[in-house]
Amino acid sequence: MTRFGKKFCIVLAAALCALTLGYMVMAETSQSKGQWCERQWLTESANFVDRDAPDYMGLLESWKKYREKCQGTVAYEARMALIYYFLDKPTRARDVLRSVENVGSEYDYLRDILAILTEYKEYMLAQKIDESLLRAFKKRFSNYVGKYPESMEGYAQLGAVQMSLGEHESAIISFAAAIEKAPETADLAGLLRNLTVSYSEIGHYQDAYDVAGAAINRRKSVTEDAEFMLALAKAEAGLGMFKEAETTLRVIVTKHPSLREEPDFQATVNFVLEKRKSEIGSE
Predict the structure, then answer these.
(1) What is the pLDDT of residues 164-185, one digit of tens each?
(2) Fewer CB atoms near the end CB (10 Å): N or C, the chain?
(3) How far apart are CA 139 and CA 157, in angstroms?
(4) Which helix (H) or strand (E) holds 87?
(5) What is the pLDDT of residue 104?
(6) Contacts for 128 with CB less than 8 Å, ≥ 6 apart
(7) Among 231, 232, 236, 227, which residue's Cα sits nearest to residue 279?
(8) Which residues, at least 6 apart from 244, have a Cβ–Cβ distance to it below 8 Å?
(9) Exposed (0-12), middle (13-18) or buried (19+): which is 246, by Cβ within 10 Å?
(10) pLDDT in tens, 48-60
């Protein structure tokens, strides 16, 4: 896989957190069939996915139990396609989505975004992700948010592409829009993770540091993420917190020893050293 594919895979996974867990806010008396099914999804996905090691096979078997009650709602099919997406079975996902492609529903926005993500997964598995393809996906997600302007998911995925392309200012705007449109029950850890990286990349170190703290408070496992921790170390160094930056680097390289050989790690170490040297020279 190219460097664009690897980076987008990590960023996209973070942006998918809210879509995976889903959210429902409604009155019990006004539930449609699809809304009832989405409520079941909220419970089932939390049971199998809201953990450090998600169990997508377990979620698949559990979700199949709702077929009789939920088939044809589009919500059911979109969630099934999402499970197949994570199981690296895009053909199965595409078949499920095709079964409701001409069905009008309040959940068309889910079906349409899963159609885009499924196509991406096919390219990813074929190791064909490159810059030109990411730009094509950026246009598709941009069109998607134009069609569904209230979609938290759309802005999250658009930001993921922009971030992978190094367009961090635009990514920040997209991630902020996703957070603004998110209901109280949405899982924001992935979006905050991505925001941390983008803020750090453009030198907004205080913003990066603050958002990183919020991400860690929501999901401690984000400290296992090398890119996130390197962004945090850079933010800490940018704020003159050199001991904290060194601790952050020590923690992540202990968890991922091979990271020592990665250019991004070396660049972050050099950044911390240069910042410290600069501060000493100014005293």
Answers:
(1) 999 999 999 999 999 999 887 7
(2) C
(3) 11
(4) none
(5) 82
(6) 5
(7) 236
(8) 236
(9) middle
(10) 887 767 899 999 9
pLDDT at 2 over 50: no
Radius of gyration of the chain (CA): 20
Amino acid residing at 182: A
Tokens of 57: 């096979």
Tell me how crowded residue 206 is: count the other CB atoms within 10 A of its CB: 11
Q: How far is CA 99 from CA 88, 131, 218, in A?
A: 19, 32, 37
Tokens of 40: 């079941």
Which residues have C-beta within 8 Å of that of residue 177, sequence separation ≥ 6? 155
pLDDT exceeds 60 at position 25: no
Say if residue 8's pLDDT is above 80.
no
Write out pLDDT tens, residues 70-103: 999 999 999 999 999 999 999 999 999 999 988 8
First to last CA, the chain: 46
Cβ within 8 Å of residue 95, ≥6 positions away: none
272 Cβ neighbours under 8 A, 6+ residues apart: 233, 234, 237, 242, 245, 246, 249
The pTM score is 0.85
